[in-house]
Amino acid sequence: MSSGLKVTGLAKSFGGKRAVDGIDFEVRSGELYALLGPNGAGKTTTLRMIAGLLNADAGEVEVFGVDARRDPLGAKRMIAWLPDEPLLYDKLTAWEYLEFVAGLWNVDTAEARKRAETLLRLLGLWDNRNDRCETFSRGMKQKAVLAGALIHEPKLLMLDEPLTGLDAAASRLVKDLIRERVAAGAAVILTTHILEVAERMADRIGIIKDGKLLTEGSLNELQGFAGAQGQSLEDVFLSLTATPAAV
Amino acid sequence: MSKPGSIPWLMSHELRLFWRRGKTRPKSGLIMLGLLVSLWLVFSFFMLQRLGPMIPPPPFIDSAWDGLALTAVGVIIAFIGSVMLSSSILAAVDVIYTRNDLDLILSSPLSPWRMLAVRAAAIAIGALPLYAGLLGPPLLWLAIFSSPLWLSSIVFLVSLAFAATALALLVVTALFRLIGPKNTRILAQIFSALAGAGVFLAFQYFNITSGRSRDEEQAAMAEYITSLDIDPGAWWLLPSRAFTGDIVSTLIWVALVACLFPFAVFLFSRRFVGDAAAASGMGQRKRVADARIINLRGGVMASVIRKEFRLLRRDPLLLSQIGMQLLYLLPLGFILMRPGGSLTITEETFVPVLTLLASTIASSLVWITVSAEDAPDLITSAPVAPAMIDRAKLVAAILPVLVLMTLPLVALLWRDLAAGLWALAGVCLAATASALIGLWRRMPGSRREFARRRAKGSVIAGLGQAFVAFGISGAVALGAYGLPLIALIPALIAAAILGVLYKPNENGLPKEPVVVRSSSRNSSPRP
Prior knowledge:
The structure holds two protein chains of two kinds. By secondary structure, chain A is of the alpha/beta class. Chain A has two domains: about 1-80 and about 155-170 and about 185-245, Rossmann fold, CATH 3.40.50; about 90-155, no CATH class. Chain A is about 35% helix and about 25% strand. Chain A has helices spanning about 45-50, 70-75, 95-105, 110-120, 140-150, 170-185, 195-200, 220-225, 235-240; strands at about 5-15, 15-30, 30-35, 60-65, 65, 80, 155-160, 185-190, 205-210, 210-215. The longest helix of chain A is centred in the last third of the chain and has 16 residues, at about 170-185. In chain A, about 50% of the residues are buried. By secondary structure, chain B is mainly alpha-helical. Chain B contains 20 helices and no strands. At the A-B interface, α1, α2, β6, α3 and α4 of A face α12 and α15 of B.
């Protein structure tokens, strides 16, 4: 498998506080990588730097061989970013939203129309395509944003808490879509606090704490690293990220 | 400390939110406000120390001249009341539509009536600070140097705010009943704009359409009013008498408001829970699916412009504010459109007016298109150069201004070619300069903060836009009056200010993580 995303020495400080402290990891094409960590560990900051939403203080990001610092637009062409909060334009309809996103990524209009229809049907939003997003529930908004993220068929999909606010059926649908993209050769990186999702879906898992990558690997490898063979990811995660109790 | 859940406790909560809205440093705001009020207090002291003893003590209820004076006071009261009504309507609509802490409060074991009475009172109190600051100090000195009866005017102003709020609640309740939740918000905003501008426009219309010069008009008006022999005891002068120290009228007025306010709150709160739920879209019948399949259109720049136009077109608050700005232009429009009329205002007068208006509208639009971007992450993560996005947003902000200005510009060009050309240049320059300053000095905010953008936005940008607009208006006005060389001075000042404000946006990225909440949530509560 070729490298989809290669992150080297990525660092970022806010007001003297090191939010991300020289992180290295790689996500291969056709691989799902789960980036886990406690609140404030630096997961979202890492993803935002990769997506080009935040300038890194140091480090390199390479997306399918394209240096994201030297050719940010070239890298962005291949990336889709799904934030934890579904930020939509309330006054646009779902169809108009997809038209806008397709326009930003300069997708051919005929192709965009076909993909928009497919995605909206798949996500159960077809009947609501001409409704304004302000009338959508949180789950519907999440689906609309996901459709927007997929309309340009990204090679690197970055998902920050993609299942927040989704019901069981929608959650299954999103997981299926993610698997489909992985099977098609995309590199997918996601953050989640639902460890069962990471345990079941991820090919490899990275655990981050205080801006540093503690360890990464398959579940088996993590269990070995933590000396917790046969235990769940939750147990492994807690044993690795536990803060020593004050004496 | 008041008991939690009591009316004083709820009121202190509302007032705290009111004071903090749009402010990041409430203490510095308080110091600044205190300083301004103190200055005004000192200035008005010296002014009224001399003038106060010359003003006859109230009440003014004896002669026809008192009737005239009371009529003049009535006009001022009508103006203040209309502005208060306008802001109260918007605030009352907010109470229904802005859910913020409503779910929390309504789910608590507090009576909704009590909560809404407090919130309505907070709306009334929120309408007061401007008038309290402007009129309070001189009225206090009047009470000392002329007659203590002038203190009744302070009581009157407070009760006027409560009366305006009561009327606003009745208007919003009626609109909700008559046209439903979807249209109430938009119509209430239009209603608010009309209420705010109504009195001003009515007077301007009568002034302008009479076809007489200003002196002739004033003389005719004075003659007409004198011939009326206005009875100062007339029922319709009750508010004026209450304002000017007639104790009986003040008591009647306060009693009327004391009945009206609880009645309006009662009507408003009776179905409030249902109305608020309806406004949030709950319990609506399932919509019949719109089966149209609209063709998708492409193009990076075109996509951004199209999206901005759609959002601008669908923003009722923005439209009502622009409508309000255009309403104030109507008096000039009345003159311009009058065929063959001899103008007491020359064509050249329109040049700076149109220029200033273009700048004001452009600054509103650019705030919406640039600062109030709902999905900044999407834009930044797209493979589009930030400069191209900025260009598209500038175009989206400037084009509507040019479209709005087309009619007055064509009319002006038709009446006076030179003035029209100067106005055209002024409009284009002012709109572009305002939009550029908004772009250079952007401050990310939520679209729903539009009404408070001046409080939340960059002070430098606001002042810069104002000064550059004045500079350009002055330059084109001087040009239109045949003084092109002198016009260079304000033009150069405007250019220098623009140069100082220039701040390139390196890569469109923030230095700190930007937390943007979904626009379906509100970032700061309103009273």
